[in-house]
């Protein structure tokens, strides 16, 4: 009996001559040969990008508060209560001190009549808003094409209006895109209410075969013509660029090579009529999901979007449930950054679109948005400001607060190339910008959107 158990135990042991150990086989995907369990390797170029954007998002919230006022000015004493309402995490009197960190964006001055401190946007910040507004209007035809391609990627040719509205900034759509894009082009879109859920949906009127061409197909053609690679190797491949420090073993390299040659269905192709139960169909559908996310990122303005935004389109585009694990399986194509919101925000970048933290092919809207980031990151030491303690009475208390006198604010805005004049101490010297600015980045439902993202399917 002991001899029998010893013999059977030896049979269960993995053979040393096997090309792949038993533990590696357990972690392999059932539909492809790429291992599912992959440790995330950080890329500091993308993480630093998100750290800078974290400051910009908070500044945008303060900008929206100021621009929402009829006079586009706001008393300093109100920022604390408004910041707590927005959930920005400021303690008492910290919001006013935070504004002083960005003298190129916010200008603090003493009201000539009320003799209390007010805050308004600087000329540079106003000009940046005007630039972004003009760039958004100029690229509106491209935004219409992006929305058409986005709706065409859905299985039923329709998407929820609310999901598109939440991600409107990423796709370069204006705040009123329901009227300025959807209803303005009835030959492309149809807007209707679902009877069962009472949700509004955007439906494509007619699929255009000329638009059903993925961005990766153009990249493959360029790679084939410039580098002269084998046509069979390039036919279904993606550009793979692993982050620094990513360990690529012999068998992993072979697995990626085999996966690159697996054919798949286009994200714009209707797969409802196919039998998806076979192993070959599972392989194609998994690679189709990679192509869908790749195309989704290619349609964005900055070639990045949050993971929670992608989850909104999961059911409509046949994406896997565990999106984060799925994207980590393909770190050479995508990068998932957890920086920018204390690990609560996951931002997905298209690796091939960036080089050293910069977009390789920038557009006007992207450049206009980066102008604000440059103003935020510009050192406060370079601002010609004079800080002095000024006492003013608020209710029954007397607080000391730092005041920035507008007389010493830097007025050189030659980089923006637009002439301006602004109101100082009650004297309006007339400027050419519109008075009713609208922030394209922050709205009153942003916190609601974030709660909706957290309740979305597990990512």
TrEMBL record:
The Gene Ontology terms for molecular function here are: RNA binding
PORR domain segment(s): 41-379
Give positions of region: Disordered: 430-459
Q: Which InterPro entries match?
A: PORR_domain, PORR_fam
Indicate, by first and last residue, each region the UniProt record lists as having compositional bias (Acidic residues): 437-451
PANTHER family (UniProt xref) = PROTEIN ROOT PRIMORDIUM DEFECTIVE 1, PROTEIN WHAT'S THIS FACTOR 1 HOMOLOG, CHLOROPLASTIC
What is the protein name stated in its UniProt record? PORR domain-containing protein
């Amino acid at each position: 009996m002991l001899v029998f158990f010893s013999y059977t135990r030896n049979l269960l042991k993995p053979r040393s001559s096997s090309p792949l150990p038993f533990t590696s086989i357990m972690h392999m995907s059932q539909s492809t040969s790429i291992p599912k369990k992959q440790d995330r390797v950080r890329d500091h170029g993308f993480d630093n990008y998100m750290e800078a954007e974290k400051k910009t998002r908070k500044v945008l919230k303060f900008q929206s508060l100021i621009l929402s006022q009829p006079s586009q000015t706001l008393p300093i004493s109100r920022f604390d209560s408004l910041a707590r309402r927005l959930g920005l995490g400021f303690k008492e009197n910290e919001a006013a001190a935070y504004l002083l960190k960005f003298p190129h964006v916010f200008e603090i001055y003493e009201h000539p009549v009320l003799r209390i401190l007010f805050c308004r946007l600087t000329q540079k910040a106003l000009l940046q808003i005007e630039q972004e507004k003009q760039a958004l209007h100029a690229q509106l035809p491209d935004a219409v094409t992006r929305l058409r391609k986005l709706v065409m990627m859905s299985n039923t040719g329709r998407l929820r209006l609310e999901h598109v509205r939440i991600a409107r900034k990423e796709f370069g759509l204006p705040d009123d895109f329901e009227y300025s894009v959807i209803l303005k082009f009835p030959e492309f879109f149809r807007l209707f209410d679902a009877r069962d859920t009472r949700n509004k949906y955007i439906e494509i009127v007619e699929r255009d075969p000329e638009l059903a061409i993925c961005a990766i197909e153009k990249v493959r053609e360029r790679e084939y013509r410039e580098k002269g690679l084998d046509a069979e190797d390039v036919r279904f491949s993606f550009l793979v660029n692993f982050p620094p420090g990513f360990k690529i073993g012999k068998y992993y390299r072979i697995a990626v090579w085999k996966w690159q040659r697996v054919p798949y269905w286009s994200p714009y192709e209707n797969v409802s009529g196919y039998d998806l139960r076979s192993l070959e169909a599972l392989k194609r559908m998994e690679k189709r999901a990679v192509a869908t996310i790749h195309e989704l990122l290619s349609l964005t303005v900055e070639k990045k979007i949050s993971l929670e935004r992608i989850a909104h389109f999961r059911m409509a585009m046949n994406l896997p449930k565990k999106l984060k694990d799925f994207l980590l399986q393909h770190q050479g194509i995508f990068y998932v950054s957890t920086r920018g919101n204390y690990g609560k925000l996951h931002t997905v970048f298209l690796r091939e679109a960036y080089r050293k933290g910069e977009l390789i092919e920038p557009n006007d809207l992207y450049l206009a948005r980066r102008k604000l980031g440059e103003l935020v990151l510009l050192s406060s030491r370079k601002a010609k400001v004079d800080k002095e303690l000024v006492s003013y009475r608020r209710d029954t208390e007397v607080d000391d607060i730092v005041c920035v006198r507008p007389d010493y604010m830097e007025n050189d805005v030659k980089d923006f190339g637009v002439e301006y004049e602004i109101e100082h101490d009650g004297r309006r010297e007339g400027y050419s910008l519109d008075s009713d600015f609208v922030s394209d980045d922050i709205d009153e439902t942003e916190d609601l959107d974030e709660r909706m993202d957290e309740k979305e399917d597990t990512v």
